[in-house]
Amino acid sequence: MTQVSETNGVLTIGGAEVPALAKEFGTPLFIMDRGQIEENIRAYKSAMDSAYDGHGLVHYASKAFCTKEMCRIAKEEGIGLDVVSGGELYTALSVSFPPEHICFHGNNKSMEEMQYAISAGVGHIVADSEEELDILDSLMEGNTKTRILLRIKPGIEAHTHDFIQTGQEDSKFGVSLKSGDALRVLSKTYQNFEIKGVHCHIGSQIFEDEPFMVAADLMIKLMADVYEKTGRYMEDVNLGGGFGIRYTETDLPRPYHDAMLATISAVKKASEKYGVPYPFLIVEPGRSIVGEAGTTVYTVGTVKDIPGIRKYVSVDGGMADNPRFIMYDAEYNALLPERPEAAREEKVTICGRCCESGDILIRDILMPKVQRGDLLAVLSTGAYNYSMASHYNRLPKPAVIMVKDGEAKLCVRRETYEDLVRFDL
Ligand code: LLP
Question: Is 121 left (phi over 0), alpha (psi -120 to 50) or beta?
Answer without folding.
Answer: left
